[in-house]
Amino acid sequence: MLNNKHIKIKNNNIKMKIRYANIKDLHFTKRLYNQNVLERKTFSKKIVSLNEHKIWFINKINEKMLFICSFKDKVGYVRYDYINKNSLSVSIAIKEKYKRKGFGKQMLMKTLKRKKITNFNIIASIKKENLISKSFFLDSGFKFLKKNIYMIKASHE
Questions:
Q1: Which of 14, 42, 76, 107 is deepest in the core (most CB within 10 A)?
Q2: What whole-number distance in Å separates Cα of residue 12 and Cα of residue 15?
Q3: Cα–Cα distance between 51 and 137 in angstroms, integer?
Q4: In angstroms, what CA-CA distances link 38 with 7, 128, 139, 141?
């Protein structure tokens, strides 16, 4: 296991792998999601049970809208949800030891380039008090739209 002190990467050359989630990622994604709920970083205030998460997770696997990111071990996930025919919402969760080291931005940028994602406007809804997330999305090319909504336009590559 990597020691947090030894992870000092903060550049665009991270050799990170991005893949679709599979059933083996069930507990990993549940743990990260619930950690964000406990830390009040999400709009949801409800810890999810394994059964609730499994039902949701299987749907996400079938949609192919949940990406697992790894570098030596699992770093985090990027999830997209349909809002309408033109827009997706994005949600990112990352292990504590990888935060503020450039991994989150790489995760986001690599998934935004996926063919299935490029045709959509991407919306990030961020809690008013979550200044780190606001800064992260602005630094990643998102523009302030209104209230706590940030957006990056479809690239149509």
A1: 107
A2: 9
A3: 32
A4: 25, 17, 26, 28
Q: What is the pLDDT of residue 1?
A: 30
How far apart CA 77 and CA 67 sit, in angstroms, is 5
Helix (H, G, I), strand (E, B) or coil at 65: coil
53, 77 contact by CB (below 8 A): no
Q: Which two tokens stand for residue 112?
A: 């935004």
pTM comes to: 0.83
The answer for residues whose C-beta is within 8 angstroms of residue 62's C-beta and 6 or more apart is: none
- H-helix or E-strand spanning residue 2: none
- In the chain, the domains with their CATH numbers are 16-152 (3.40.630.30)
DSSP 8-state class, residue 100: T
